[in-house]
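Input (Sodium-dependent transporter):
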Amino acid sequence: AAPQRAEWTGQIGFIISAIGSAVGLGNIWRFPGVAYENGGGAFLIPYIVALLTAGIPILFLDYAIGHRFRGSAPLALRRVAGRLGESLGWFQVMICVFIAIYYTAVLAWAGSYFVFSFDLRWGDDAGGFFQGEFLRVPDDGTLFSMDFVPGVLIALVLMWVVTIVLLGQGVVKGVQRANMIAMPLLVIGFVVLVVRALFLPGAADGLNALFTPDFAALADPGVWVAAYSQIFFSLSVAFGIMMTYASYRKRRSNMTTPGLVVAFANSSFEILAGIGVFATLGFFAHQQGVGIADLEGLTGVGLAFVTFPAIVAEMPGGPFFGMLFFGSLTLAALTSLISILEVVFAGIIDKFGMSRKGAAYGIGGALAVVSILLFGTTTGLIALDTIDKWANEIGIVGSAVVMTVTVLWIRRAGRELSGHLSALSTFKVGRTWLLLVSVLGPIVLGYMLIVTIIDLIQNPYSGYSPGYLLVVGWGSVFAMIAGSAVLTLLPWKRDPSNFVPWPV
Ligand code: PHE
Ligand code: NA
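Output:
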């Protein structure tokens, strides 16, 4: 008989862990800048539309598949849609493999900067410190090197060890416990940070810059694409995470209410981060005597590791603020990384019958080696940015399109899944949900995918050479597809179809 599948100890463990996955770098460093650049306050309209028409419906789809078919992405999707489904599941696992490799690097940087905050180690040239002293990015344009950077290397090894050991402890003692500790700390730390930021001189200007609506932006399709892509990445949907976490829920579970809680918590954290980040940027602009529009580095790596350190250096009580910011970033990234790796390990455990410790130490160790070779050296920064772009905008969006088409059009599992979602839930889903996931979803996402592909082909990303982008960007996606094909062809330890879906 198949071993008993691990279960969260209760609904709270699941909800907190799912929020832990959702709340990540996307909330803190992506949402505020994206909102600002895409219509400010007016961005909330496409954002909410995207949340209601695609984010939550696809979140429910992930939940329904993972719970009803009780498996990691490859197993659950195999049970829904045969080999085609399984290969999609492995593609989602491969996306997580790539993301894990660079996400850990950011986690390591955040952890290092938490320590650097004590004495504001970056001094008064935060940008120079980050690229020069800290990462030692070669200034001659070298793309690959094997020169290790000791400081980064140590932090990276440490983060891998922590994550692997946690995941080796299993779903309850590892994943759930880590989230139950980290998430309250994150919320408290971040709320303190936001409150502090609101009292900085210039904070109000920052908030005005973020929230003043530019309604003309709504006529730009690019703004809508930005909203859908923010929601997707932010909710961690369509790449196996929510499916895997849902597979650990007890048999008789309310499916939809926790989904609404997770989505609401994630969006609230995004708005909160927008307030905190822009209040802080308002202070910076005020210090420099410039407008917010003149500032650079408002998202991503630049915001977190260049702009914020520069601001912290000018602030009374800077070390405390820096610790709050980088501490929050570390916890947010750690709880997301746990979910990413859980997708990978769960897939391997389900298919090959490997033990949890075997998967965590063996597969996790192998990923750690790759991550350390790529990001413990002087070349980490460039590859990170490129892989991130392709994994998110091609990988995840592509996976969502294929998933909705395979499950709802080819396999026609829509009614079965909507019945499953509603059986024990207080919030019932019906025809509206089905229309959203099966018709609107694939159209909007397919459109986004095509627009992105054309744009990436026509305009070399960030001005990198086409050869480099072919290898690192497109190459990553090809590697995901190839990896998924190989994994699908390998034999199952236990027959995946020997199974009865849960009648709830
Ligand atoms: N949802 C996370 C965020 O908003 C991002 C994430 C990416 C989570 C990859 C898990 C895996 O930052
Ligand atoms: Na998020």
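Residues 21-22, 24-27, 99, 233-234, 236, 241, 336, 339-340 surround phenylalanine (ligand 1) (CB under 6 Å).
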